[in-house]
Amino acid sequence: MNLREQQEELETKILSPYASLSKNSKGREVEEDFCDIRNAYQRDRDRIIHSKAFRRLKHKTQVFIAPEGDHYRTRLTHTLEVAQIGRTIARALRVNEDLTEAIALGHDLGHTPFGHAGEYALDEICSEGFRHYQQSLRVVEKLENKGQGLNLTWEVRDGILNHPTKGKPSTLEGQIIRLSDKIAYINHDIDDAIRGKILDVKDLPSIYTDVLGKTSRDRISNLIHDIVNNSMNESIIKMSQDMEAAMKELRVFMFTNVYIGSKAKDHEDKAKNMLMQLFLYFKEKPHILPPEYIDMIEIEEEPIERVVCDYVAGMTDTYAIRKFYDLFIPSSWKEI
């Protein structure tokens, strides 16, 4: 019995009966030989971490566009915080921590530059529409690894696709990340908004913080404990009604006071216009796209708009700005 098989046997002994056992995975679209050390979900986690899309997350906006300071969250740090929260819950409930981590690390791979402003721009201008969770799945199934995709397990792909609020993950591990994502972004966005003087601690409605906690640390801890206490030995991941209602209302408060109309969002219209202009430019001139994208259009007969969305969505904030500058801003010249 090799190390992987020993791990799989250990899972059957220590994990909850509701956990997703790695040996029972529905598998990959393309069958592969098993690793003698790592289980299927560990391999998925490693493939995501080593992907180019994952590395680009460090230069993609979470909420605040072009903030001055090194301590504001990026899409990468958000992803790591989601993974940390998810793993804590998974370990406490004795479900599959490896699967939980893999879903967390891959859930935002398809996010655009400039956060949700970029997502709204592409959804508005692309006739096929655009949703970051669908794009995240497309990244791992199609775009990564030179067009071959990462060939991840069914359970990880299901968790990535279904992590939004309206999603319905098929596994407990996917359900954990669906909630961990919200716990992470609500609280770290509050932290960043206070750092950026968009909010003051006293602005947070006490009707919600009395339930959730007065600090980010307390809120995250209380939410994790609530999920664990209400989901232990259950076939579903859930929260108490009071905590869930307070979290939802605090999220509404953040949309009203931070995500929409605050000074932190002053550059959103500029960012949206930039991505729309880039989209239209490459839609009209697809022949100047990188070779792998041209191949998708000419050889694989993918719709031009879908491929242009792939290219623009994959850009980092800095690359999108540089590309826009190169294409649309005249530069000075001198005689030689």
Short recap of the structure:
The chain has helices spanning 3-14, 40-49, 52-56, 75-93, 97-106, 115-125, 132-147, 154-161, 172-195, 206-212, 216-231, 241-259, 268-284, 291-298, 304-313, 317-328. The chain is mostly helical and 336 residues long. It has a single domain, classed as Hypothetical protein af1432 (Orthogonal Bundle), CATH 1.10.3210.10.
Topology:
Elements: H1 3-14, H2 40-49, H3 52-56, H4 75-93, H5 97-106, H6 115-125, H7 132-147, H8 154-161, H9 172-195, H10 206-212, H11 216-231, H12 241-259, H13 268-284, H14 291-298, H15 304-313, H16 317-328
Spell out the key features of this protein.
336 residues, Hypothetical protein af1432
Number of H- or I-type helical stretches: 16
CATH homologous superfamily title = Hypothetical protein af1432
Radius of gyration: 21 Å
Q: Outline the biggest β-sheet.
A: none
- Low-pLDDT regions: none
SSE class: mainly alpha
How much helix is in the residues?
55-70%
Mean pLDDT: 94
Level-1 CATH class name = Mainly Alpha
Shape: flat
